[in-house]
Design a protein that fits this description.
single chain, about 200 residues, mainly beta, 3-stranded antiparallel sheet, 16 strands
């Protein structure tokens, strides 16, 4: 409301309804950050110590460059403390990309449209592989063995390499499997979630 200081009762104007919103700045994930599928990741933001905003909404997208960006809810009730544990991080094939972003907006009191901000750069969601066998085993050359491993995220295929002493520079130049091993389907062992590859160490 604005009034004439000399004649306030007669000369005044009242504006339309509006909202005063909070200010945020996403600090993680940002450009170059990596989150791992099916694990936890701490989303953090600067809330500028603004009082009165009790909760925020968090979203993510795996394609911020689409003509119509789809924002998938992570939570709609995170306390505005500046940190939220995202658990589990998404693991679908479309999410295993290097162009993900998050969005934060004021939720309580509700004012999402006027307050949302996004991470300024793309971050990655990556899958993970865990070798379970061998593990401190002794394998004889020329004897058939079974390499076992688990995955996190919708990884589609893998290659298996061998290093005679376990150091990075001594892995075989080519994988021991003649073609990529398809792991897009169910694991070989449903109880343990393990996939495997049968291999005979060469003499």
């Amino acid at each position: 409301k604005v009034t004439d200081a000399d004649n306030e009762a007669v000369v005044y104007a009242v504006g339309s309804m509006f909202k005063v919103g909070a200010q945020f700045d996403v600090t993680a994930p940002e450009s170059g950050h990596v989150a791992y599928a099916e694990e936890s990741y701490d989303i953090t933001w600067n809330n500028y110590s603004i009082n009165g905003v009790n909760a925020v909404s968090l979203y993510y997208t795996n394609d911020p460059y689409a003509a119509e960006v789809v924002w998938t809810p992570i939570t709609t009730g995170a306390q505005n403390t500046g940190s939220f544990e995202w658990n589990p991080v998404p693991s679908a094939l479309a999410d295993l990309a290097n162009k993900n972003r998050v969005r934060i907006a004021q939720y309580d009191p509700l004012n999402e449209a006027g307050t949302y901000v996004e991470s300024e750069g793309d971050f990655s969601i990556k899958g993970k592989l865990i070798v379970t066998v061998p593990s401190n085993d002794e394998w004889a050359v020329g004897t058939p063995q079974r390499v076992k491993f688990q995955k996190k995220g919708a990884l589609q295929s893998v290659n298996v390499y061998y290093s005679y002493d376990g150091t990075e520079g001594h892995y075989t130049a080519s994988p021991v499997n003649p073609s990529p091993l398809d792991i897009s389907g169910a694991p070989n062992d449903g109880a343990t979630g393990e996939y495997w590859y049968d291999w005979t160490p060469a003499t």
